[in-house]
Structure formats: structure tokens, C-alpha cells
Amino acid sequence: MKVTLISTVKDCAGAAEGFLASLAAQTRAPDEVVIVDGGSSDATAEAYGRDERVSVLVEPGANISRGRNTALAAATHEIVAVTDADCELDPGWLEAIVAPIEAGADVAMGWYEPELATPFDRYAAAVNLPLDATEVDPATFNPSARSVAFRRAAIDAVGGYPEWLAIGEDMWVDQRWRELGLDMRFAPEAIVRWRLRDGVAATWRQYFGYARGDAQAGMHPERHALRFGAYTGLVAALASGRAWPRLLAAAGALAYARTPARRGWARAHDSRERAIATLAVPALMAVTDAAKMAGYAVGLFERRTRRRP
Fold first, then answer.
1. CB contact set of 98 (below 8 Å; sequence gap of 6+)
2. pLDDT digit string (tens) for 99-134?
3. Helix, strand, or coil here: 92?
4. Taking Cα atoms as reference points, which of 68, 7, 18, 14 lies closest to residue 43?
5. Mean per-residue pLDDT for 6-10?
6. Residues 182 and 234 in one domain
7. 66 and 121: one domain?
8. Are residues 119 and 251 in the same domain?
9. For residues 291 and 231, is the Cβ–Cβ distance under 8 A?
10. Shared-domain flag, residues 131 and 62
11. Which domain holds residue 24?
């Protein structure tokens, strides 16, 4: 079966060499590659376009959804694999991500791993990213568009990517696929590697945006409500003059931080880094949770005051 690989990119000229090298190293080459540049201010389109295997379309002002829909419109094959053009693909990625489709699946859900070049990367990864694929349940897993493949009929069934949603569009599509009961199979050996945000400020903006998109699209309301409730309870417990609410809050906080702390220790390179992780991981948890709550509040306001297309 022939496969089209699609991706979107913007202002990522420096990532082109790594992405294209990983594309060239694939054990199974895509039959065509379509990348949509959302209107870069640098030489991104030229950097990716130097590879004769790649068709680069420039769509100024396009968000990720519109970029993907533009790439889909240009794709000529029944099977579509999706990734981000600032990532690097494991050599067997395309072969592994296409295998479930060729075996009859509607959607193949690949895996993705962060590049952990610095201690901050390792602390940040501990907060929200599993150590490996064994931490997720394939029956409920929602794949990122960094590593997914599908039949054209599957994306057509949900009307393509939602261009009214600036971020979180892949999760929206995943939820629609789940609602339709499509055959979604996990392919944990289809691995894409990606870089985390640099620094606390960039991490804040990332999770603020994710939560804002959740609210705009009406996704994960229970999860966000639980977060607001937990922090409200924590503040109330700390403000009380009694010992037992504070002890209960401390026990709850320890339980909440247990899994991220375990990941931080597992990813640490030495004892010094583990000691720092003991404080850094909970601190980053608080930062990302604050970003999520702020982003969700903004998204809710926007959802209620703006008419969704």
C-alpha cells in the first residue's frame, strides 16, 4: 500500500537537517512527502525543499489544522502518516506505523520520546511524560500527531482537522475517532523523538496553550475540574488552623507527586541530579498546573463568548 507522509512546520529551518536525515534513514521510504509551511519568517521552506523527495507548500497564516488539511488535500495515497517536521524519526518508524493499517486497522497510534539533553529536560519530562509505552493503556490512549497514521476514510469521517481550533487539534480528532468506534491499534515501536521547550517560561506557554485548547473544544472537563478542586482544597487546608487538614493535604500532595518523582529519579544521571529532582519536579508540577488552570479559564471564557464555527 502506498503511503503519503504529511507534516506542518513554521520557523524551524534549524530542524530541517535532522528531520530530513531521519527521513532518509527509514527502512521503508514514504511514497511521497508533503510539508506545509505556515508562513515562516526564516528560510524554513527552502531548508526542507532542498530535499527532492519533499513537496513544500507555503500557506501563510495557516494554523496547524489548516496546514494538515492542506497537506491532506495534496496527498495522493490512501494511507497517510503524520509527524512534526521538527522531530526526528526512528529508522523503523514508518514501517512500524504503517503495519497496523496494512493489517486492517483504521488508525495506527505510534509512540514518541522526548530528547533529554539537559537536567531541565529530564525534570520537565518527569512531570507529564511516561517513562515508556508500558505506562499507557492502548484502549484509551490518544496519539499525538507527532506519530500517527490512518486511512483517508478515517480522517474524512471526522471532517478533517478542526481549523477553528489552534491547538489540541490532534486530541480532538482522536476523541472523534473513539466516538465512532474506529479500529485504533497501538504501535509502540513506531518512535518519534522530539525536543521539549527550553526553560520555565516556554513550558508555561506550552501547557497554557494546551489547556486553553481543551476548554475551547470542550475536552477533558473532568480532568480540569479535578485539578481546580484539588488546588482549592490544598489552599483551604493550608489556611485552616487545624493540623489534620494540613496532614491530609500533605498526604495528598505526596500521592500526587509520586509518579512524576519516580520518573525524575529514573531519568536522573547521578545522585546529585536525583537530589535536585526531589525539589525541581514538584516545583515544575506546580508551574504546569498553574499554566493549565490559567489556560483553561481563558479558554472557557472564549468558548462562552465566541461562537464556534
1. 1, 3, 28, 79, 81, 108, 149
2. 999 999 999 999 999 999 999 999 999 999 999 999
3. coil
4. 14
5. 95
6. no
7. yes
8. no
9. no
10. yes
11. 3-195
